[in-house]
Design goal:
The complex is a heterodimer of chains A (360) and B (266).
Chain A: E1 26-39, H1 44-52, E2 55-69, E3 74-78, H2 85-92, E4 100-105, H3 115-119, E5 121-125, H4 137-147, H5 152-166, H6 181-193, E6 199-203, H7 211-228, E7 231-235, H8 239-245, E8 248-253, E9 256-262, H9 263-270, E10 273-280, E11 292-297, E12 300-306, H10 310-320, E13 323-329, H11 333-342, H12 355-359
Chain B: H1 2-21, H2 23-50, H3 60-77, H4 81-90, H5 93-98, H6 105-134, H7 142-167, H8 176-186, H9 203-209, H10 217-224, H11 229-264
Helix pairs in contact in B: 1-6, 2-3, 2-6, 3-6, 3-10, 4-7, 7-10, 7-11
Classes of the chains: A alpha/beta (360), B mainly alpha (266).
Chain lengths: 360, 266
Amino acid sequence: MRHRGPLVSAVTPFRILPLGTPRPAIVVQNLTKTFDVPEREAGLRAALRGVFKRRTREVIAVSSVSFAIERGEIVGFLGPNGAGKTTTLKMLAGLLYPTSGEATVLGYIPWQRNAEFLRQMTLVMGQRNQLVWDIPVADSYELNRAIYRVPEHEYRETLDELSDLLDLGPLIIKPVRNLSLGERMRCEIAGALLHRPRILFLDEPTLGLDVTAQRRIRSFFREYADRYQATVLLTSHYMADVEALAKRIVVIHRGLILYDGALAGLIERFAPLKTITVDVSSPLLDPGRYGEVVSVEEGRVTIQVAKPDVAAVTNRLLADVSVTDLTISDPPIDEIIDRVFQHETIPDAEVEVPPAFART
Amino acid sequence: MSTLRGVYLAQLRISLAEQFQYRGAILIWLLGLVIQPVIYLTIWSTVAESSGDNVDGYTARSFAAYFIVAMLVNHATHTSIMWEFESRVRHGALSALLLRPIHPIHRDIATGLAFKGLTMLVALPIAGLLALAFHPVVTTPSWAVLVFVPALLLAMALRFTVEWTLAMAAFWTTSVTAINRLYFAVFIFSGYIAPIDLLREPAKTIAEVLPFRWMLAFPVELAIGRVSATEALIGITAQAAWLAAAVIALRAVWSRGIQRYSAVGA
């Protein structure tokens, strides 16, 4: 039985909720994952010692992470390498057992890997290949159709839609090995969505693709999520992915959530500075007295100023030199994120409990 | 059940399509299939001829029958899962399989069946050629031909289950190759290089206690007519019992293995 009805009706035996309460698609509470990593110094002596006594070090990959994601929501997971993004995603997709904490996805405990749960979700990883290398893509799709029990007419319909959105066309009758990386990725994505999952975990879905391909895949996921009211949790290195898709972002670093909220709020919180760029017709003497100098070029000076001082500094600039052009902007998101990760302790980084928890 | 049937059909198609891509590999594989039994056959025929054409009831021509059938049965029951599982675990291919709402074992069963269906088409004529060359004789009663079918199927299921279970050692250790070597050393007790009747003590007792003879020697002896009706009945029962035990072991090891896999980083 495949359920395609309104998303509110759920299939869960776990919690009884008041009627009419929309339950979040994903609820994560104090989820923690530690790994025991073997530790050994380089060299033969250390190798010998390792034969008799193995030393391991506990690495905390994810540390007591909590959040909730509503049905139909698209959430971007941001963080540097090793932040714990993928580990969290893998736990939610049922590939990893957590060390402690709880999570439910559509009411299921993911790592129990209930077949009904697996039928409703997908995990797309940038470098994963589900497709069989030596045979045409369409044959691999047929296998997925059988595994996910997609009825023939629905399969045709979905495949047509996906082909259209991802511009697959003649690709699916080619053997996988003859496809370029971008083409293969598009085929992989279509294969991962043939069963029309309601939950999408996307781990670096645009990794290694050129800008055009990245843009295409981004707009595809937006379209898909829209059409099927899918819940999406996505990780990416590329800020553009997250900016284009997610209204809400969760910033994770060293296994801890640093920020959970709207993209605009992140800028508000972590970028207390504005960037002022002025084009001047006469040289600007000692630009340091206006603010922190970012760059000085022929006829153009860029400085950063604390937000409250923007108006005053702008006035002084206009009074002091002849300005031909002046722009005030937020620093690029990438820069903000970098700043977040460089300053490990952020005084104001406590995360409010998302409202969804109040109910559960 | 209809889900599984659909999955098997799709998987069979894929595996066949894949195999057709590797025609060269199949030829090389065929050489490997033939060389070993022909060597054993030649050795034992020579031994038989030098001992008045009778080694514990085996003549040169019944040796020929034994090893030609053994070649086919070995091919039917053979799996390569013990060599494949490790890379599946180590390179994360297992993760992709775990995301699907179906046990990964079905993929191996379907792939195995497809491979055998295809290669049997070549192995059978080869057996025919060997028969022309070595003139085997069999004394098979007609009931044994019937019993051979379930005996062969049970042997396939048993060997597959045992090897799949052992392959899961890859969840715990990186020394899978060492384990595999040990396994194939012990596998001589299946009757592959010599009929079990010819083994001397204590090898014979060991062979009778271990499950390997039920994966190979039993269906072979049945096919060439060296098994009485009572022995056949005992044999089928023993196969079924070993299979049940192996399935229980597989389930237990799988659930622990998968927990370990997902504990250390799938």
